[in-house]
Amino acid sequence: MKKFAAAFAVLALSVGIAHAADDPIAIRKDLMEANGAAAAVSAGLLKGEIPYNPVVAKEAIMALRAVSHAFGSFFPAGSDKGNTKASPKIWQDMAGFQATLAKFQKDTDAAAQASGKKGPADLAAFKAAITPVLGNCAACHRDYRLK
Amino acid sequence: MLLRAAVAVIIVLAAAAVAFWYLTIPRPLDAAQLSQYGPGDAKRGERTFWLAGCSSCHARPKAAGEAQLQLAGGLELKTQFGIFVVPNISPDKKDGIGNWTLADFANALKRGIAPDGSHLYPAFPYASYSRMKPEDISDLFAFLKTLPPVAGKAPPDKIGFPFNIRRGIGLWQLLYLTDKPYVHLPQNASAQAKAGQYLVEGPGHCGECHTPRTFLGGMKRDEWLAGAPNPDGKGAIPNITPGKGGIGGWSEKDIAYFLESGFMPDFDSVGGAMVDVQENIAKLPASDRDAIAAYLKAIPPLPSAYTDKR
């Protein structure tokens, strides 16, 4: 019974992955939601609504960094159609879009570098690291997201 | 008989022409009104500059940082009436507005009239700026004078018939140009909400994008701030009333924080043309953002007037 459940879980997982790989729009949305959650944690820390904790701060930075490096791979030709708010400008100007993403990656890499092994030591260090990263949200959504 | 009919037609046409001429006469501010415009304060005018979003259209497209203060124009606004090219309003004497008087400037903002008496297209949001206080206009004018003059005129508009007849804009102004409030706030509305009404309906000109328009391009008062098609093309400008599809779920704090940081309560971020607007509003004192938030919570809740079909 246990074996069956495990096999079923693996099957379900692989089906899930197969489905997702066919659906770049769904993956894009998941990645952006991860970004949104990391931005929420960051703002909570910055506003003092979440007591400062270097581990939590690092988690936010690393989530944003992972998304920054993964996101650009999910805009194949044709994925401008469907239930998406991605702007057609992405496909009209892929180089510009990738350059905007490169800036996001550069900023998240710098933030990861600054946070070190244990995360940014204090709120001031976190603020210095995260502020340039968060600026990328609007900078990219200005041109490449419909709203 | 034929002659009589021809005479009748000519008389009707002449009457129509006279009526058109009369109805479209530019209506500048009178002497008593102009006397309210004193010398402005450039320092205070900077706040009005960001509030009114001047640089978002009048700086060169995609300008950032100091370049936002070079008001060379050149941005193309593509509309159903044609393409409007935003003019140079830097203090350059030849190509900008360096030779304008304060009265010229006030007539442009309050009455939609150029110094030569011709009507300005309402792509310049004077249907909102008409609500501005004289002292804010004086201050703004003083601030604009401190900016660098930039040589070079923007290219002409590309507007087809009949909209290329500027005189006709006088009719539009008769229909849509007023300095009355767009919504009636409840009697017990807070002073903060009333302050926000001025910021939103006047200099902030939020309704120019967030309110749907009639086929003549006037804002629909009964759908105030209920959302509209995106003038830049695809997508929708959101409903920012507390009604269905709007931002009723946002607290005043959420709205103020969005205007300051660009982050919505669910930590989605600001996008599109609103990025410039949010960055401008982030430069204002916190009390202005709080006032805007209080007003947006106090206006009539409306269901979204436009939903994007994609």
Defining traits:
A: 147 residues; mainly alpha; Four Helix Bundle (Hemerythrin (Met), subunit A); B: 310 residues; 3-stranded antiparallel beta sheet
What is this structure, in a nutshell?
The complex is a heterodimer of chains A (147) and B (310). Chain A is mostly helical and 147 residues long. Chain A has helices at residues 2-21, 24-47, 54-70, 89-92, 94-115, 123-144.
Account of the protein in words:
- The complex is a heterodimer of chains A (about 150) and B (about 300).
- Chain A is built from six helices and no strands.
- With about 150 residues, chain A is mostly helical.
- About 5% of the residues of chain A have low confidence.
- Chain B has about 300 residues and is mostly helical.
- Helices cover about 40% and strands about 5% of the residues of chain B.
- Chain B is built from 13 helices and five strands.
- In chain B, the strands form two sheets. Chain B has a three-stranded antiparallel beta sheet, with no helix packed on it. In chain B, strands 4-5 form a two-stranded antiparallel sheet.
- In chain B, strand 1 and strand 2 form a beta hairpin.
- The relative contact order of chain B is 0.13.
- The mean pLDDT of chain B is about 95.
- At the A-B interface, helix 2 and helix 6 of A face helix 12 of B.
Structural class of chain A: mainly alpha
Query: Total number of helical segments of chain A?
Result: 6
Largest interface: A-B, 19 and 23 residues
Distance between the termini of chain A: 49 Å
Oligomer: heterodimer
Helix content of chain B: 25-40%
Mean pLDDT of chain B: 95
How many strands, what sense, and barrel or not for the largest sheet of chain A? none
Q: How is the topology of this model organized?
A:
The complex is a heterodimer of chains A (147) and B (310).
Chain A: H1 2-21, H2 24-47, H3 54-70, H4 89-92, H5 94-115, H6 123-144
Helix pairs in contact in A: 2-3, 2-6, 3-5, 3-6, 5-6
Chain B: H1 2-23, H2 31-34, H3 42-52, H4 54-58, E1 76-79, E2 82-85, H5 102-111, H6 126-129, H7 134-145, E3 158-159, H8 169-176, H9 191-201, H10 207-210, E4 228-229, E5 236-237, H11 252-261, H12 274-282, H13 286-298
Helix pairs in contact in B: 3-7, 5-7, 9-13, 11-12, 11-13
